[in-house]
Amino acid sequence: MRSEFKFPKVTVALMAIILAAIILAMDKARAIQDSGPYSSPQVGPIRSADFSLFLPLLLALGAACLAGAIGWVILFALHRSGIHRLSDVDPSSGPRPAKKFTN
């Protein structure tokens, strides 16, 4: 079953930016809510928002990038990525039959 509709590649980046903006807005709203006592009719000065979710998300993104880079380095060092075999491909010969392994 084939689907002809494909999302643009930039969609993921835009969704991540929108999610970050929503998280920052929630932190600012929490700071405004906590700026004064609950039963007070007067609102005190608004404190700056402490970004409680921004730093962990940034650290998780950094860890994911580091894990991806380590995986790429391992594949590159072992030459198992398949890139080195592209020079052996002859497109005019067609597909090759699968190799049979013997014990």
What does this protein structure show overall?
The protein is mainly alpha-helical and 103 residues long. Helix content is 48%, strand content 0%. The longest helix is centred in the middle third of the chain and has 25 residues. 0% of the residues are buried.
Give short descriptive properties of this protein.
mainly alpha, 48% helix
Q: Helices and strands, in N-to-C order?
A: HH
Q: Catalogue the unreliable spans.
A: none
Percentage of residues in DSSP E strands: under 5%
Provide mean pLDDT, rounded: 78
Number of beta-strand segments = 0
**Distance between the first and last residues' Cα:** 38 Å
Estimated helix fraction: 40-55%
Largest sheet: none
How large, in whole angstroms, is the Cα Rg? 26 Å
Question: What structural category characterises the helix and strand content?
Answer: mainly alpha
Give the overall shape.
elongated
Give the SSE map:
Blueprint: H1 10-33, H2 54-78
Sum this structure up briefly.
With 103 residues, this protein is mainly alpha-helical. It is built from two helices and no strands. The protein is elongated.
